TrEMBL record:
<dbReference type="InterPro" id="IPR000477">
    <property type="entry name" value="RT_dom"/>
</dbReference>
<dbReference type="Pfam" id="PF02145">
    <property type="entry name" value="Rap_GAP"/>
</dbReference>
<dbReference type="GO" id="GO:0005737">
    <property type="term" value="C:cytoplasm"/>
</dbReference>
<feature type="region of interest" description="Disordered">
    <location>
        <begin position="689"/>
        <end position="833"/>
    </location>
</feature>
<feature type="compositionally biased region" description="Polar residues">
    <location>
        <begin position="770"/>
        <end position="786"/>
    </location>
</feature>
<feature type="compositionally biased region" description="Polar residues">
    <location>
        <begin position="702"/>
        <end position="724"/>
    </location>
</feature>
<dbReference type="Pfam" id="PF00078">
    <property type="entry name" value="RVT_1"/>
</dbReference>
<dbReference type="GO" id="GO:0051056">
    <property type="term" value="P:regulation of small GTPase mediated signal transduction"/>
</dbReference>
<dbReference type="GO" id="GO:0005886">
    <property type="term" value="C:plasma membrane"/>
</dbReference>
<feature type="domain" description="Reverse transcriptase">
    <location>
        <begin position="1"/>
        <end position="255"/>
    </location>
</feature>
<feature type="domain" description="Rap-GAP">
    <location>
        <begin position="423"/>
        <end position="639"/>
    </location>
</feature>
<protein>
    <submittedName>
        <fullName>RAP1 GTPase activating protein 2a</fullName>
    </submittedName>
</protein>
<keyword id="KW-0343">GTPase activation</keyword>
<dbReference type="InterPro" id="IPR050989">
    <property type="entry name" value="Rap1_Ran_GAP"/>
</dbReference>
<dbReference type="Pfam" id="PF21022">
    <property type="entry name" value="Rap-GAP_dimer"/>
</dbReference>
<comment type="function">
    <text>GTPase activator for the nuclear Ras-related regulatory protein RAP-1A (KREV-1), converting it to the putatively inactive GDP-bound state.</text>
</comment>
<feature type="compositionally biased region" description="Basic and acidic residues">
    <location>
        <begin position="791"/>
        <end position="804"/>
    </location>
</feature>
Length: 864
């Protein structure tokens, strides 16, 4: 019994029997073979059969076919090559039909009767491990390994040639390997029907002659007249479908559709083979272990925040391999959500809709503004120090600081209490905590997509590698991330490999665990899942190079090649290579030199980190970046429209449902809506109070002056609030524009304030403040929903209270947004003393816009 080196040793189909013949019998058959040599001398045998004939070889068959294909290409014609595969061809020769074939060639009488004992009365048995099986009679076939066997088989198939030629095909055979080829005009619409008719008649002839045509292994290769031509010759024969391949192995030579023989040249160079080779026409890069790779590798990438991941600084296993991500997508949740800040939306600027978030911060005595500006193309995140500014910029000016070429700025404050949840959802729409990766098994000598997806058995080395990736799980009723696999009806197999890594779920699409379809050479079920992945791991059990364009896929952009050495031992190591499309930026962690890992937790952490970072990097490629840009633009438009609609509803404008009006305070007109919005804001800040008492660290909040003018917004220090008249002070060019006599965003109360001052009751505030806010509106405001307290045409400055501590993150920070008027581009900034009436005698306090909130704050003066 003989076995091909690439077949599974545990399957009986991997072995083929060889007849052991006595020496005397071989000598006698050699004499007979020489006696019937007249068949060849008189051209009685098929002229297109090169098997076991003097002066003929596999080279004869290959040269004949290759030359015909080249001539066709030179004549601007397309060609098709079909390679027929017969199962156990020599073993299925019928003993009743063979004598008729010999008789048709002139072998009759006693010579014909001499062949009968050579074919009948034969038996076989298997000896293994000292045991011998029962003998079985052979009722069909000619002896493999005998002198006469190939000649008898060639005689048996002589009548096949005319059937092939009747359909316009040419052919050439080498023993049981049959090549059919046909040249045709590129626009010939009848080719598919011609192929189908020829294969149908061949299949019928095979059945009549008791030969087994294996349609699942029959190859079809189309050679286009020009590289731009594409053909879809899917031939249906019974329950089997034959589809074109990109390359096939024919008599030991690998053919490709352009007749470049590139895949064959790779394998014939001899070992040691590289793990990956660039395609002939480029389009990919290979990571060089000797090149220093700085991570993160692009301006849009950074390391994921360890506090967000809940990991130690050294990573999950302490090996230092870090995940890369777009940190800006998490910035709003980290710095704004639950903290005092303001949100604005801008309609139809030169960059389209814009959404801005502003937050005042003070840390270690340094004042700054944290800014996030969202456009349809990207989000800008900056922290601008206030020290040294001559004047505090307006909202449009802040936007120009981040993007100086934007025009047509007209910002409106967001008044919707739940805006923060909408904004954080938009920012994190590209944050991904679930991943699916393909796993492809490449055996020795496999250089085509069909061979890779045709692997149906798992060797111990491959199983060992899968255990490194994750756990083997049953798909039925699986509750975790399924990665597109069927967990109800078993249509994608019964099991797969799944794992969790750094609070992320990973499902692997393992080629050998996906359904295998007999007769489907492309294995579309497997290609459907792995071909739609973005990153795939390729396991190489033996040294065979991988070429990225072996697999035709619009989605696969990166491959991580893993080659096992000494599998199944205590010294198992894995050699790793990485390749990706040329528009994919490099990604970490960098490969060490040499790129060899011992089996263990470090290799697992490196591999999973590399796969996740690869997918994040692939999303920056041209194909996926365009998809993301379209998605982002649509989501930003939806966010802008929703913020505008909800803001209008909050102040009693716009059309809303009764339920929304009740929720947003829509009853009672503008004044009642405004009062209700203030109560919502007050309720949102209640949970911040205890934190602000306890946290003397970074202060949060935004000066209302950055709105460019509008309603005063004061944080309160005491339980009851009143207006505090600000004091004019000279501006210093060396100081922050918000610094006053009370100090630079002072940490201490102003000397004019009495800490023991008794504050008015809440009912007093309502009667005094609200009528003022109702009657006065800024003349420069174009937004009727933005009432202002100050009636002056210039923009006043107000005194705010600096709040310390951090707010409860569960609260919507948009409820603390500024209720300022629309800020237009080019608005001026001037200081003047605010006019107050009944509150000039009070030394501290603020307007009761916060309802019943009780927050200890400090005085801060800001410009509008």
């Amino acid at each position: 019994m003989l076995k091909k080196p690439t077949l599974n040793t545990s399957l009986t189909d991997s072995y083929r029997p060889v007849s052991l013949l006595p020496f005397i019998a071989k000598t006698l058959k050699r004499v007979v073979f020489n006696q019937i040599s007249f068949l060849s001398q008189n051209n009685k045998l098929d002229a297109n059969q090169s098997g076991f004939r003097s002066g003929h070889s596999t080279e004869t068959a290959l040269l004949s076919v290759t030359e015909a294909l080249r001539i066709s290409k030179a004549d601007s014609k397309s060609s098709v090559l079909i390679l027929l595969d017969l199962s156990a061809a020599f073993d299925t020769v019928n003993h009743q039909i063979l004598p008729s074939a010999l008789s048709s060639l002139g072998i009759t009488g006693i010579p014909l009767r001499w062949f009968e004992p050579c074919l009948t009365g034969r038996s076989f048995r298997v000896a293994w491990g000292g045991e011998v099986s029962i003998a079985h009679q052979l009722v069909t076939g000619v002896p493999q390994g005998s002198v006469l066997g190939p000649l008898l088989f060639s005689t048996y198939t002589t009548s096949l040639g005319p059937i092939i030629q009747a359909h316009g095909f040419s052919y050439h055979c080498y023993a049981d390997d049959t090549q059919l080829y046909l040249s045709f005009q590129p626009d010939d619409p009848t080719v598919a029907a011609q192929i189908s008719g020829c294969l149908g008649d061949i299949s019928a002839w095979m059945k009549d002659y008791h030969l087994q045509l294996n349609l699942a292994k029959t190859e079809l290769l189309v050679f286009p007249a020009t590289p731009t031509l594409q053909y879809d010759f899917s031939i249906q024969l019974g329950s089997s479908t034959i589809t074109p391949s990109t390359s096939v192995r024919n008599l030991g030579i690998t053919f490709d559709v352009q007749l470049t023989f590139k895949d064959h040249i790779i394998l014939e160079k001899g070992g040691p083979y590289p793990q990956v080779i660039l395609p002939q026409f480029g389009g990919y890069w290979i990571e060089d272990p000797e090149a220093a790779l700085g991570t993160p590798t692009s301006s849009d990438s950074s390391f994921c925040e360890e506090e967000d991941d809940g990991l130690s600084p050294g990573g999950e296993g302490g090996f230092g391999y870090r995940l890369e991500c777009n940190s800006i997508s998490r910035a709003y949740r980290k710095h704004f959500l639950g903290n005092e800040h303001m949100n604005y939306y801008c309609t139809a600027s030169s960059m389209g809709h814009l959404i801005m978030s502003l937050k005042y911060e003070e840390a270690d005595g340094q004042e700054s503004l944290r800014i996030m500006l969202r456009s349809k193309t990207k989000t800008l995140h900056e922290r601008i120090p206030l020290e040294g500014l001559l004047q505090l910029p307006s909202v449009p000016q802040i936007a120009k600081l981040l993007c100086d070429d934007v025009t047509g700025l007209k910002f409106n404050p967001v008044l919707y209490p739940r805006a923060s949840q909408l904004i954080v959802s938009f920012d994190e729409h590209e944050v991904n905590n679930t991943f699916k990766f393909g796993v492809i098994y490449q055996k020795f000598g496999q250089t085509t997509e069909e061979e890779l997806f045709g692997n149906n058995e798992e060797t111990p080395a491959f199983t060992e590698f899968l255990s490194v990736l994750g756990d083997n799980i049953e798909l039925q009723d699986f509750k975790g991330f399924r990665g597109g696999l069927d967990v109800s009806h078993g249509q994608t197999g019964s099991e797969s490999v799944y794992t969790t890594f750094r609070q992320r779920e990973i499902m692997f699409h393992v080629s050998t665990k996906l359904p295998f379809t007999d007769g489907d050479i492309q294995q579309l079920q497997r290609k459907r899942h792995i071909g739609n992945d973005i990153v795939a791991a390729v396991f190489q059990e033996e040294p065979t190079p991988f070429v990225p364009d072996m697999i035709a896929s619009n989605f696969l952009h990166a491959y991580v090649l893993v080659q096992a050495e000494n599998p199944g031992t205590d010294h198992t190591t894995y050699k790793v290579s990485v390749t990706a499309r040329e528009d994919v930026p490099p990604f970490g962690p960098p490969l060490p030199n040499p790129s060899v890992f011992k089996k263990g937790p470090e290799f697992r952490e490196f591999l999973l980190t590399k796969l996740i970072n690869a997918e994040n990097a692939c999303c920056k490629s041209d194909k996926f970046a365009k998809l993301e840009e379209r998605t982002r633009a649509a989501l930003l438009d939806n966010l802008h429209d929703e913020l505008h609609r909800q803001t209008q509803a909050t102040v009693g404008l716009g059309s809303t449902t009764d339920e929304e009006k009740l929720e947003n305070g829509g009853h009672g007109g503008l004044l009642e809506s405004f009062k209700r919005a203030m109560r919502v804001r007050s309720h949102s800040m209640e949970t911040m109070v205890t934190h602000k008492h306890k946290s003397p660290g970074v202060t949060a909040g935004v000066p209302s002056s950055v709105s460019g003018g509008g309603l005063q917004q004061n944080s309160v220090e005491c339980t009851k609030s009143t207006f505090t008249p600000p004091v004019l002070s000279a501006k210093s060019p060396l100081k922050s524009p918000v610094k006053r006599r009370s100090g630079l965003f002072p940490r201490l109360h102003s000397s004019t304030e009495s800490p023991t001052e008794k504050h008015p009751t809440r009912s007093d505030q309502k009667t005094e403040v609200l009528p003022q806010s109702q009657e006065v509106r800024s003349e420069t405001s174009s937004n009727p929903s933005s009432p202002e307290i100050c009636p002056n045409k210039e923009r006043p400055f107000v005194k705010l209270k600096e709040c310390s501590g951090r707010a409860n993150i569960s609260r919507s920070s948009s409820s603390t947004s500024s209720f300022s008027s629309t800020a237009g581009e080019g608005d001026g900034l001037e200081e003047l003393e605010m006019v107050t009436h009944t509150y000039t005698q009070r030394q501290k306090g603020s307007v009761d816009l916060l309802g019943n909130s009780r927050v200890h704050c400090k005085n801060i003066d800001f410009l509008f």
